[in-house]
Each structure stands twice: as structure tokens, then as C-alpha cells.
Amino acid sequence: MKFRSLASIALGAALTLSMAACGGSGAGSGDDAESVPAGDAESITIGVAMPTQTSERWIADGQAVKEGLEALGYTVDLQFANDDIPTQTQQIDQMITQGEKLLIIASIDGTALTSQLEAAAAAGIKVIAYDRLIRNSANVDFYVTFDNYKVGVAQANSLLYGLKLTDKEGKPAADAPAGPFNIELFAGSADDNNATFFFNGAMDTLQPYIDAGTLQVKSGQTDFATCAIMRWSQEGAQTRMENLLTSTYGGNGEGLAGVLSPFDGISRGIITALQGVGLGPNLAQGLPVVTGQDAEIASVKLINDDVQFSTVFKDTRKLADQAVIAAQAYLEDKQPTANDTETYENGVKVVPSYLLEVDTVNKEDITPLLVESGYYTAAQVEAGQ
User: Fold this and answer.
1) Which pTM value belongs to this model?
2) CA separation (Å) from 342 to 88, 338, 352?
3) Which residue stretches of the chain are H helix?
4) Domain that holds residue 242
5) Does residue 92 share a domain with residue 168?
6) Are the C-beta atoms of 295 and 361 separated by less than 8 Å?
7) 94 in the same domain as 82
8) Final residue before a domain boundary, out of 255, 288, 313
9) Mind listing the pLDDT tens digit for each residue in 24-51?
10) 282 falls within a domain
11) Could you tell me if 181 and 258 are in contact, meaning their C-beta atoms sit under 8 angstroms apart?
């Protein structure tokens, strides 16, 4: 699957980072921050560990972080682990053994890196958790991410908006239908700390409507463990949706009004299952409202084609910027600025964090949020690749 040009990502990240590093904005350490001298930077290698290349967003994240750091003169060791925990632990072990000066880690399993982080701390290596919190370790120094609870709130609000129960901002609609509406719930991978934040934010938003009887989860499957899709698998989501259609909706999806999905890959699995029983936007029985996350280009096309209802856009260019700014602060023996020091308790400590905001993308938002910002071209949206 193709995605937006990595060259354009790198250029955008490099330009943004060069300005941010000089200005000390975001997660940097203030207006008096100074750049590492070029000669010093060239002697420093930074390890960047990403979880997989099966999702376009992680490829883009890895390249954006790499190019941003390289624009500041650093050498970067970028590794992808293909969703295999032993591979990622071995990659990080090797980064530490090779004497890399700082690690930026997007973990596969946030509980599987305790010994690696102990070794990093013993070697004086700072660790920045990237988008996924690393748990059960005192040796996570900083965390850059989006406001993950608000991601769940945004997904739930989009589901409510699609059912015409609220306006786009989440305020109750004056002419809201009485319902009840049948919905089903999906959650992300149980080994990803973010997945619980997404699910909790969504459920806190939907619960009043469930309690009032306006929404009902017809299958009765409302707990996180049952709704979770391991490794965020599109195939796993398709299988679970097919099973729900068979067990709860007569095999044809009749009466299903909406599906809460936490990720575009899961959304596409859900939609494949729905289309498999004859549902579609141009058929007598249309598709339920299906949410998503990450603005993957294949799902953006589905939104543009009135198939998927929405996605939550996390501009990973901004996330890469913050990771690089935080890295540079540490390499200058400074402390990155956090804008949250309360939320992300990892089982051992509260990890100082820098949180970014997100946007919900419906069909009418594709051009202003994704095309005009340079994230995708109109041709990519049209082609879905």
C-alpha cells in the first residue's frame, strides 16, 4: 500500500524541526535552547525502534523521526520489528550494546521491555516512549503522544453524530431520534496501553446513551477484553464482525446501526464483513456508521466514497517533531517540557508527557484537514493509495 511521499514527510519534518529546535517550542526546554554543535551531533547515534511496517502510519512515523533527527546532524539507527516482540527486544538490546546515546521507542508490547530499559538506564541512555506508553519501568524518561482519552471521546462523538443524536461538536441534537439504535464495540490490542485509553474515553461518552436505552449493544459484548483485537489486526476484526453478524444480526446485519472502531485497519475489516453480507452505501440496506483512527489513505478513500463514516486524524508530523525536540533537549543535558505530569502512570511512575490534540475527519473535512495541509494529495485520496 502506498502512502504520502516520504520525501515530503521528511522535508516537512526537517523544516518544522529546524524552526522548533531554534525556537524551543513544544516539548523543548525554552527559548534559550541552543543547537548541538554540528561536529558533536555527527558523533551521536540515536536509536529509533518502531513496531511494524504493516501499517502505513508507522512507516511514516519512523521516516519522519529519522529525517528530523538527521536534519539536526544526528546519525539515526531506525529499526522496524514487524510486530514481533523478540525482534524488537533484540533490536533495542543491540542499540544499547552499540552505545547509541538515546532511544525513541514505539513499543509492540508496553510491558515487554523492562530489562532493556534497565540496561539503557545503567548506560546513561535516555528513553522517550513514542505514542505507546512503556509500562512497569522506572526508566521511561519522557512520553510523546496524542491525548488518547480524547481520541476515544472523539470516536464516540463521531458515532453519535453519525446516528444524528448529536451535532458534530458532541452537543445533543435538538431533533435527535429516540432510538434505540443497535451498536457494536471494538477495541484495540490488549497489550497496547493506548487501547484502554481509547476504549475508556469512548465508553464514558457512550454510557449515558446506553443507560438511557437510546443505544444498545445487542450482542452484550461491552467489556474491553471481549472487544479487543490483538495486534490491531484487520483480519481479526473481520472475523469478529462476521461472528457478530451470525450470532446477533441474523447473518445479514439487519438492525445494526453503528460500530465503534478504534483504528482504520480494524474499520476496514469490519466493513469487509458488512459488505460480505450485502450491505453497502448504494444498496437498500446501507452500511452502519463505522468510526476509525489514523487517517490511513485507504480509509480516507472509503470516507470520501461514503463507505466509512469517519476517522480520527493524528498528525504524526507533529508527533515526530515533538519526539525530536525532546531528544535534542536530553542531548543538551536539559529537561524536555511536559504539558501533562499527571495522566500517564505506567505502573511504577507517572511519566512526564507531551500530549497533542487530534481532529475528526468526515467527508467534508478531507480537503481542509488532509489535502490543504499537504498530508495527502487529492489524487491520493481519489485513488486510495
Assistant:
1) 0.83
2) 28, 10, 8
3) 6-23, 38-42, 56-71, 85-97, 114-122, 148-162, 193-211, 224-227, 234-248, 264-276, 297-304, 316-331, 378-383
4) 148-313
5) no
6) yes
7) yes
8) 313
9) 334 443 333 344 444 466 689 999 999 9
10) yes
11) yes
